[in-house]
Amino acid sequence: MNTTFKSFRVEEHNGTFVSSIQNTPFKPLLNNEILVKVHFSSLNYKDALSASGNKGVTKNYPHTPGIDAVGVVEQSNCDTFAAGDKVIVTSYDLGMNTDGGFAEYIQVPCDWALKLPEQMTMKEAMIYGTAGLTAGISVWRLSKLVKPGDGKIVVSGATGGVGTLSIAILSKLGYTVVAITGKATERDYLRSLGAKEIILRHEIENYDKKPLLKPLFAGAIDTVGGVILENIIKTIQPAGAVTCCGNVASYSLDLTVYPFILRGITLIGIDSQNYPMKDRIKVWNLLANEYKPVQPEDTCRELTLDRLQDQINLMLMGKAQGRTVLKLTE
To answer: Quick check: 319 pLDDT over 70?
Structure first.
């Protein structure tokens, strides 16, 4: 085996962060670790922040981002996995302060990995990635309280990774989906994923400031937070439920308790980063079977390392659509 491997490295030079493709040396494999030859990774907003020097995501540089990876175990120092096993590694500290999936190899604790479901390809796993895991957890938790016949489900941040996959999954399961987006030009794309109605972001942001509004939705998957989440909660019908997994709009909520005590609304927080492994495996198997969109590849684009920085720039400008899968093998 070679002594180095290719990786997308981000370095800090006098307060400026610069990326390049470098040859990175292998490190000794520690106890309870696996070395994985990465076949695919994917680009998430957290990766874009790490690649641009956001110290809230990654404290020390040089660094390799990539919070998602799928590949084949090359070496194992634990009983859980053997060389040749296909594994998925997402979230935990991967790509944050531990070198991540934008590389030909990753070295991680065995406890971070799970076996790739038999009904899922490696590329499909990264079409999902952390975004798909988050969408899957959100749908799974929501479906325990809200059924397809109960009413419409609204999804915010609809053109983002979690949003697009949530729409596709909900639609497959028979829910009537309403998409919230700030991109009027993406109506046809959202309808192709399964959205029946489109609400523009400024419309829901400008709803009345009353503590309760007319019930419109049986449930919701919110990915943005802030005033959009506030107004979604105010418009949920009695006994409805809302999942919450993001704060790109704001981490603050300005609400009364009325939606919760007068309509019995349930607000469900979603933390996919440290989600328990037994439930994580269950959701990945749902994504491989009942939750799998009819054509999952319709929700993604595929890139190689040399084109990655351009896509990171688009994501930071809010111009990225759907999922971006990074291919690491020839």
So the answer is: yes
Q: Per-residue pLDDT tens for 134-148?
A: 999 999 999 999 999
Q: What is the pTM of this model?
A: 0.91
User: Residue 252 belongs to what domain range?
Assistant: 130-269
- SS3 percent helix, strand, coil of the chain, rounded to 5, is 30, 30, 40
Give the C-alpha distances (Å, rounded to integers) separating 95 from 48, 66, 185, 293.
11, 4, 32, 27
Select from 311, 249, 329 the least CA-distant residue to 44: 311
Tens-place pLDDT, residues 215-247: 999 999 999 999 999 999 999 999 999 999 998
Indicate whether 265 and 321 sit together in one domain.
Answer: no
Tell me if 89 is assigned to some domain: yes
Residue 281 φ then ψ, to 5°: -60, -40
The total number of structural domains that make up the chain = 2
Q: Which residues, in sequence order, are CB contacts of 223 under 8 Å at separation 6+? A: 155, 156, 157, 160, 162, 163, 166, 245, 246, 248
Mean pLDDT along residues 162-186 = 94
